[in-house]
Design a protein that fits this description.
By secondary structure, the protein is mostly helical. It has helices at about 1-10, 15-20, 25-40, 70-75, 100-105, 110-120; strands at about 75, 80-85, 105-110. The chain has 2 domains: about 1-45, no CATH class; about 70-120, Factor Xa Inhibitor (Irregular). The longest helix is centred in the first third of the chain and has 15 residues, at about 25-40. The relative contact order is 0.11.
């Protein structure tokens, strides 16, 4: 039915033909709305996406998830400390002294002020 209405209304050229006839855009819209009423379309059509839902149940809350970016960067020990890898190891290693490179080798503990935020990002590793 929609296809028949579209073809009867003149298709894509309906707007331009009525504008050329001197009706303007308003005349075109009035013409199309009258045609819609003649073929059984209601004047107060509401798109499906804007209609109220039939059952207005609350949506289920999303599950608690681990932030994968934090999980890849930090490790939480059994005692509750948060470990991170040392900064300054990615590049330019040849300019650093061997003693400094050895000291950057292991993982170090995160400062106490940052521990809480990191633990919030990883809820299942406490």
């Amino acid at each position: 039915m929609v296809t028949r209405f579209f073809a009867l209304a003149g298709g894509y050229g309906a707007h331009f033909s009525s504008a050329a006839a001197g009706l303007g855009c308003i005349g075109c819209c009035l013409f199309n709305s009258k045609l819609a009423l003649a073929y059984g379309f209601s004047s107060s059509y509401i798109a499906r996406s804007f209609r109220k839902k039939a059952d207005s149940r609350m949506r289920r809350p999303k599950g608690v998830k681990t932030k994968k970016a934090a999980a890849k960067r930090f490790k939480i020990t059994a005692g509750g400390k948060v470990l991170r890898s040392s900064a300054g190891r990615r590049h330019l290693a040849e300019t650093k002294r061997p003693k400094r490179r050895r000291s950057l080798r292991g993982s170090t503990a995160v400062h106490k002020t940052d521990e809480y935020r990191i633990k919030q990002c990883m809820p299942f590793t406490r």
